[in-house]
Amino acid sequence: MSQAPVPTATSINVPQALAQALELHRQGRLAQAEQLYASILTARPDHFDALHMLGVVKLAQGQPAEALRLVAAAMRVKAPSPQILLNYGLVLNALNRHQEALENFELAIKRKSKFAEAHVNRGAVLAALGRDQEAVEACGKAVVVAPNNAEAHYNLGNSLRRLGRNDEALKSFDRALMLRPAYANAFNNRGMTLQALKQPEAALLSYDRALTLAPSNADALNNKGSALYEMDRFDEALACYDRALAMQPDDAQVHYNRGNALKGLKRYVDALASYDRALALRPDLAEAYNNRGSTLRDLNRLGEALQCYDRALALRPDYAEALNNRGITLHELKRYDEALVNYDQAIAARPNYAEAHQNRGETLQAMDRFDEAQISFDRALSTRMHLAEAQESKGA
């Protein structure tokens, strides 16, 4: 089918060209719509609709800076409507100017109280700003205004999950998927929620659905690897991490997770290399220092292990796992008094840390302080029983 010639600036019928451009835009034929909008602007540089809609095209094409210029120019031509305020907010959000985006979404809602898209995006940008409690409230309003909007339920699920309200989050993701069965991101985040609920097998199914829909979703591959790791399926986890890194080679978290899988496989030297890569990319990743220390301890390089724990604790002084691991290393060096200090610090940071109570008891036992050791052993046992009962009650 031949393509209709693009009108020139001298021959253009602006209303007809705009109607044609809008129809092409609606059909997703962005390049052709872009040409028509540009032709209109050659003839009429201050044409509001052409400026506005060409900005929307540029945003869809991944050019938010150019989109910002065009939409801002449109807003200087005419007092902004709720729709253009929404689109301007979307452009600002794409430029990571979240606070300004929020202000535009709120102004759009002020002018049109039941503007579903503005409510949905207001919730999303509040989440991006880390204001999850407000995001839950905003997403709740979006769900009321637009109960059949899958994105509204998805955004609500994300904020609930970040607040630790995982049972509610799961219901929101399920609702989003009922409305949009091919929603890959919802399957991915549903999997993360199931992992938080200690259901890695169910999480794995959600990640697989996400990857069926979006095979190149590196986040879903990384998360699938984490679920497999929790199930001690280290080889399969490693394969997932390697696939994720093939797409995102500079993702520090995936390198860290890869190190954990290698450590699980007892490939300690390879694990160290992965932790080192993670730390080169993110020097503030305390977990990588902690697990690097544990790997060095497995290699009996105890002095180096202590240095890693010290680096982790410099970043996070109340890091209970690093304090506990430092205590274990000091115990192995027979520096029992120092080990006790670390165990006490770990317990202060996390009073129900059963492993730290157990390790404290073993160190006291090595010091022939048997009565005190028994108290620590009893505390470890009671803590484990309490946690087991809580988990069993939660799963019932």
Tell me the number of strands.
0
In this structure, how is the largest beta sheet organized?
Answer: none
**Span between termini:** 63 Å
Give the second-level CATH assignment, the architecture of the domain at 79-181: Alpha Horseshoe
User: Superfamily at the CATH H level of the domain at 79-181?
Assistant: Tetratricopeptide repeat domain
Order of helices and strands: HHHHHHHHHHHHHHHHHHHHHH
Tell me the Rg in angstroms.
28 Å
Mean pLDDT: 93
Oligomer: single chain
Low-confidence stretches: none
What is the name of the CATH topology of the domain at 79-181? Serine Threonine Protein Phosphatase 5, Tetratricopeptide repeat
Determine the number of helices (DSSP H or I, runs of at least 4 residues): 22
Helix content: over 70%
Overall shape: elongated
- What CATH first level of the domain at 79-181 would be assigned? Mainly Alpha
Proportion in β-strands: under 5%
Category by helix and strand content? mainly alpha
How would you describe this protein?
Helix 21 (354-366) packs antiparallel against helix 22 (370-395). The protein is 78% helix and 0% strand. The termini are far apart. With 396 residues, the protein is an all-alpha fold. Among the domains are: 1-72, Tetratricopeptide repeat domain (Serine Threonine Protein Phosphatase 5, Tetratricopeptide repeat); 79-181, Serine Threonine Protein Phosphatase 5, Tetratricopeptide repeat (Alpha Horseshoe).
